[in-house]
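Quick start: load a record and inspect it. Here is Ribosomal protein uS12 methylthiotransferase RimO:
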Amino acid sequence: MSAPRVSFVSLGCPKALVDSERIVTRLRAEGYEIARKHDGADLVVVNTCGFLDSARDESLDAIGNALSENGRVIVTGCLGAEPEVIRQRHPNVLAITGPQAYESVMAAVHEAVPPKHDPLIDLLPPQGVKLTPRHYAYLKISEGCNNRCTFCIIPSLRGDLVSRPAADVLREAERLAKAGVKEIMVISQDTSAYGIDLKYAESQYGDRTVRAKFYDLAKELGDLGIWVRLHYVYPYPHVTEVIPLMAEGKILPYLDIPFQHASPAVLKNMRRPAHGEKTLERIRSWREACPDLAIRSTFIVGFPGETEKDFELLLDWLSEAKIERAGCFKYEPVKGARSNDLGLPELPQEVKESRWHRFMQRQQKVSAAQQQKKVGKRLPVIIDEANGTAGKGRTKYDAPEIDGAVHITSRRPLRAGEIVTVKIDRADAYDLYGQAV
Ligand code: SF4
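Running the structure step on this input writes:
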């Protein structure tokens, strides 16, 4: 299964470039590949300019080229505000949308070439494919993965790690911030491995050079003055370096680390990166350096050969690690995954089911206790949805789509994208409730 490929043409002024950037960021995050040529791509998106006659001609020519070289074309941007002009010359374009219409462009792309959502390999949750509000964006820093976890087929589908040069990533992040994005979610298959393939090469960003390295990138992103959240970080020793950036408030005190299990035997069978690391000790030292660090993770229960003892070890780990959020999946033998051929016994479905329930129960208690600690505090909350004086938002400790929400009432009208201080009145295992102050 290869990723759908979209070729992108960006014409026009810096504002149009920001639009292009947002659309490309979104496409990348959803698993589309950006093709270098029209030929061979599944689709072409042309972001047009309609300001001057020459720009209109250039736009119409670019659409014509895309149609002859590819045939499947979506038009967006300023000239898209005059669909009749485009239809007259090029009746066969698939869809036309106007400037800053990210949502409609993405809807047209989804219709023409549906995103291949596969819960096993995607970085975004299924509901993440819905359109991102304009105040947050996913920033993909690399593609592929050098690890070979036995349950995972990403490396065989997407290949080894290919990191984007640091300057490239930073320019995209800067443009997003300028376009009004208030929160960036850094994503990749293995964020802490960023730059290994480039041998941490330096690239020119503004007046300085920046290394393609996890810490350097996090530090630079932290200087943008917006919320920066790190996803898919593995507990390699060098992760400790970014904790001070969190303690200083440069990047959000949040780590999404897919631990997958706690039993050394299971982790070994999974061939997890950093499986030998003493994760409990590591978490303890991170929390010492940054007391309000929130950790979210995902786990797999019922991996072949997982014994009751292995599983109990995982439950104990949960009680001790006290991570804020944990998702849990029942192991599934994915076609092509090496875990099917390890010669380990597959567990009966009812065992997987019951372990899943036991896991959820245990973690729910932990999460609820962590949530209770926030009651009475005044926390900055980013508003995701506003409806007059009521709204829904998130604290620094919660990522969109996957973590909990804060339900807010306010004396003045709320706006999506603003960051307000909320006094937390109560909590349940997932969500918080409070008033804007
Ligand atoms: S780290 Fe493991 S699970 Fe994650 S993409 Fe790489 S091989 Fe797959």
